[in-house]
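Page 42, continued from yesterday. The earlier attempt failed because a stray header line got pasted into the input along with the sequence. Redoing it now with the clean sequence only.
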Amino acid sequence: MTIYEKSFSCHRISEGVAEGEVIVSKDDIMFYLVNPETGEVIEKGHDLEGRSIAGKILVFPGGKGSSVVQADGLYQLTMKQNAPKAMIIQNPDTVLVSSAIIMEVPMVDQLDASFYAALKDGCRLRVDANSQIVEFI
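This time it went through. Structure tokens are written below.
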């Protein structure tokens, strides 16, 4: 893999830098249906059901649910130190954007399709929202 293939430009939504293991969701996430004590997705039928997003780089299409449950869900995860380290989102919405900024969780979007083609669950990434770069490490 060349350096070019390891590094991808992105659009900064919420500032910050984080490194960690990736967890990829094909389903939209309702943070209210994530157990704040463990970071485990408890939504029935969700592709991440039973898996923890705590301390991971969360890659997902978007959020779902009302603004109150989205913001409160992410807040509860943050207070219990079980929020994702960073979020890469495909379809950001106002509630998740504002929640990520307030909770100081780095969030980016607008990555090239080649990034998603190279992405595998469990790989490691460095998300540098400040420099608008996502790198495989």
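Notes: The domain at 2-136 is CATH 3.50.30.10 (Glucose Oxidase; domain 1).
Reminder to self: strip header lines before submitting.
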